[in-house]
Amino acid sequence: MNDRHLYSDTITQADIFSGLEEGELSHIFARGYKNAYPPGTILFHEGDPAATCYLVLTGRLKLTKLHEEGKEFLVRYVPPGQVAAAIALFAGKNYPVTAQVIDRAEIIGWDRNTMMNLLLSHPQLTVNMMRVVIERLEELQRRHLELHAERAEQRIARALLRIMNQSGRKTEEGILIDFRLSRQDLANYTGTTLYTVSRTLSSWEKQGWIASGRERIVVIDPHALMLFAERD
Amino acid sequence: MNDRHLYSDTITQADIFSGLEEGELSHIFARGYKNAYPPGTILFHEGDPAATCYLVLTGRLKLTKLHEEGKEFLVRYVPPGQVAAAIALFAGKNYPVTAQVIDRAEIIGWDRNTMMNLLLSHPQLTVNMMRVVIERLEELQRRHLELHAERAEQRIARALLRIMNQSGRKTEEGILIDFRLSRQDLANYTGTTLYTVSRTLSSWEKQGWIASGRERIVVIDPHALMLFAERD
DNA sequence: TCTCTTATTTGCGCGAGCGCAAAGACAACC
DNA sequence: GGTTGTCTTTGCGCTCGCGCAAATAAGAGA
């Protein structure tokens, strides 16, 4: 892979590769397959045998988990520099979630055997992977606690702030969420409903805290949202 | 440590030690400190600097996480053969949960440096640790999905079945949950309230599915509970 | 055995937020 | 530029399950 310099920023920032040498990085990247995917592509389905793990270079993935009767839980968004399905390789069986491309995305994939060999020959990579998994576990614990201790509107506020921090882009209007994010998505992420999210966002828009359109949200006053999320 | 044979069953079953040689095991155990704790002991508090990780030999731990205003989330019970706070060592900062002894417990502890060295010298141990963390992550994802897609009574049914599978003991009456488990504990585990749990258990008792007393539950008809949890 | 503490039950009322339904807005695609 | 499909808004009613309060039960300890 000779165009590594093209996305070297992404790689440098990727927590999974922190502390690795130049030489190790190029070796690791040479073992993977790079591809571009249009929006809507399903990279893998929940339940499929886990064969490959992925690093997002550009674009974004949405990871979801299905429940009976069509209810869907939005596990998380995967921004550039983060890996998806690293876990599945270890667990060794099936993908526990479905991964869908939401912006046109460039992605590198490594199949299981390749990644296992890389992990064996680069111990630092294993440690990084462990740390990443643990961070996910802790975030999920926080979200679980919120879901059980806070009201719907507070959870929506926290979700919006979290997504904003991860994927916000400053504009003259405020901080724009940088990808298509529907009311339904937010509901699936927070454990509420489309209706509750819509009502809540409308009320915040009246307060002047946010501005929103179809699948598009701009946070104007993050501080007000933070106070709202924290207040009793 | 010369009394390893005393709890060799527990060790053999401990998924964290699967695939390790006799010699490796005794080396690992020789590096740890064994202790016994009375019920109620707090092994560590959420927020304390993470210094030690633990393996439960006998007895049981309860891991909880606090939210503002005293609300408490019961993360999980740690039965014999499982480790607690292995994660905290990697994350490297503070314990994310509080660990309380609920039955008189024998526990081995390893401090961070010791465990880190053991991980470096026993690669299989690292792989096992990774698998354990991933299993936790997946279980938490399942519970999160339940919390957001199912009603309170279904979640209580699933929780009871899960705890029964992990800590049930056959008696002539039915399958007894083998430790003090209060209505409040179940509420904290399922994201409901003391009152809802009490009403639900009462109704199941009338149906003859369970028998219960103060901090004590016997599952008489697991199949009925399973059908109840699965039904729409 | 009596007392004290803590867990549990149950009646009652209420409110958050779900979810249907129908209308309105927006984007995309011929 | 009209048409179509999808996303969003909002009114309305209703249900689940929360949470107070007060009584009861079950252990723990003296």
Describe this structure as you would to a colleague:
The structure is a homodimer of 232-residue chains. Chain A has 232 residues and is α+β, with helices and mostly antiparallel strands. The first copy, chain A, has helices at 8-13, 22-30, 86-91, 112-121, 123-149, 152-167, 183-190, 194-207, 222-230, and strands at 33-37, 42-44, 52-66, 72-78, 83-84, 98-111, 168-170, 175-177, 210-213, 216-219. The first copy, chain A, folds into two domains: 4-146, Jelly Rolls; 150-230, Winged helix-like DNA-binding domain superfamily/Winged helix DNA-binding domain (Arc Repressor Mutant, subunit A, Orthogonal Bundle), CATH 1.10.10.10. Residues 1-6 of chain A have low confidence and may be disordered. In chain A, strands 1, 2, 3, 4, 5 and 6 form a six-stranded antiparallel sheet that branches. Chain A is built from nine helices and ten strands. In chain A, helix 4 (112-121) crosses helix 5 (123-149), helix 6 (152-167) packs across helix 7 and helix 6 (152-167) crosses helix 9 (222-230). Chain A is globular and about 55 Å long. In chain A, 45% of the residues lie in helices and 26% in strands. Chains A and B meet through helix 3 and helix 5 of A and helix 3 and helix 5 of B. The structure holds a DNA duplex (30 and 30 nucleotides).
